[in-house]
Amino acid sequence: LSNGCTTKTENQKGPKIPRSLARTQLPCCWFRNIAQPSYKMDKEVAVLQRKLEAELKNFKDTQREFSKLVQTQQQLDGQYFENKSILEELQMLKPTNTVYKLYGPVLVKQDLEESKQNVGKRIEYITKELKRCGENITQLEAKQDKYRANLQKLQMQYQSQMAIAKQ
């Protein structure tokens, strides 16, 4: 051929030729143009599928982390309200009342003011932890929204590539 291309027939190596075209001599550049898009399409679909799987893994990881944080927040809420009620009960006591603190199996006598301060510090610590936990939850919600949007975009691209590949 004048363009420098050789021809391929049925017995030569290369892309599979339909039987109806096997008897005719076709330039190799014709096969290159035909074979490349489908190979490229398969490659693009595979790349999209890997991206989709990676994004889904990230999304599931953030969901797990989110549920752990929510569980931690619930535990902290319980501790907060328990300590609040303890502080209220300590506030009702008179300075002459005796307060005992449980250390393992032993009850130890403790000063009323010291008990109030300890419970107050615990409440303060729990409040800080609740705030930190709430901020982390907010950040994770934003991350989840980002991953969800990316997943939807990738899924649409993947579906359109699959539809094109089927044609």
UniProtKB/TrEMBL annotation:
Pfam families: Prefoldin_2. The keyword Iron does not apply. InterPro entries: PFD_beta-like, Prefoldin. One of its GO terms (molecular function) is unfolded protein binding. The keyword Chaperone applies. Keywords: Chaperone, Coiled coil. It comes from the Eukaryota. GO terms for cellular component: cytoplasm; prefoldin complex. Residues 130-157 form a coiled coil. GO terms for biological process: chaperone-mediated protein complex assembly; protein folding. Heterohexamer of two PFD-alpha type and four PFD-beta type subunits. Belongs to the prefoldin subunit beta family. This is Probable prefoldin subunit 6.
